[in-house]
Protein: ATP-sensitive inward rectifier potassium channel 1 isoform X1
Organism: Lipotes vexillifer
Amino acid sequence: MFKMLVSVLTERMFKHLQKWFVAHFLGRPVQRARLVSKDGRCNIEFGNVEAQSRLIFFVDIWTTVLDLKWRYKMTIFITAFLGSWFFFGLLWYAVAYIHKDLPEFHPSANHTPCVEHINGLTSAFLFSLETQVTIGYGFRCVTEQCGTAIFLLIFQSILGVIINSFMCGAILAKISRPKKRAKTITFSKNAVISKRGGKLCLLIRVANLRKRLLIGSHIYGKLLKTTITPEGETIILDQININFVVDAGNENLFFISPLTIYHVIDHASPFFHMAAETLPQQDFELVVFLDGTVESTSATCQVRTSYIPEEVLWGYRFAPIVSKTKEGKYRVDFHNFSKTVEVETPHCAMCLYNEKDAQARMKRGYDNPNFILSEVSETDDTKM
């Protein structure tokens, strides 16, 4: 009995491990390469860039500092202040050393130093710190004995203001960048294809998680695919414009609640020759852009995401998301934001248009130019 129980448990464990191995290794689909990730980051790298081209980044030092990651920015921030304090501390120590103000020179009682109470490198560093950040404890101060100390004091004060302005401005600009505002704009996980207003459309849902509006919003798309020109040239990441609209157009969107944007699949659409059966075998990437101006800061921001063929569902529509409460308020249920519902949909756009053309031909007649009406005279069979 015990051996049978062990055998059953071992067999079940083996089947469980087999299913886990198949699901995590053999059954995992191959991930397609995509240029734009779902959160909008661009997956591209530049190789063989010349050294002279890299120096251009230092010419535009402001943009370079803004684009740095926070850990590098804080490293530069701390290094700039500590480095300037220590550098000027060395200069103040050199002034005291040249003027023989240090205790090891045994100055006389009536000796007037350039800077009061600088006894070594540590006190010179503290005086440099107090001067640049304008602390002014009043213990160490510059005297009128030597002009070198006065000139150094002026130079450090001016350079300190420049460093403070640049570094504090860079951090403030980094915090207030509209890139963080774009994080509160979200797109649906999938795009769907279904009928809308009697037309076959590709639909995407987008929502603004903040109550503050985006002013002058504009939405559009690019279809990226590899194409071969009639001359035989292969173009990787060839871009095709995709027009997205809502019922009121694609500009100046009233973005107070989630919107369902759609692209009409007509004869000019690159999706016209695709079908439900061939869509998963296609090789393309649909990148969707949303541009707008942040209402609170008047800064322009851009939100982007992408969809690959596996993320486009044919024959589905989005579930309702907006409802009205008994108190008269409108409620948005984000639980159904990316939820889809299967609906009856033609399996290709060409079939839908052919069906419409057939129905239209049945409702109207056509003239036949080859038809000739000939008159036939009647014979009187009753004549004798």
Remarks:
- The first strand starts at residue 185 and ends at 187.
- The chain has a mean pLDDT of 82.
- Helices lie at 2-26, 51-59, 61-67, 70-98, 121-132, 147-175, 349-363.
- The first helix runs from residue 2 to 26.
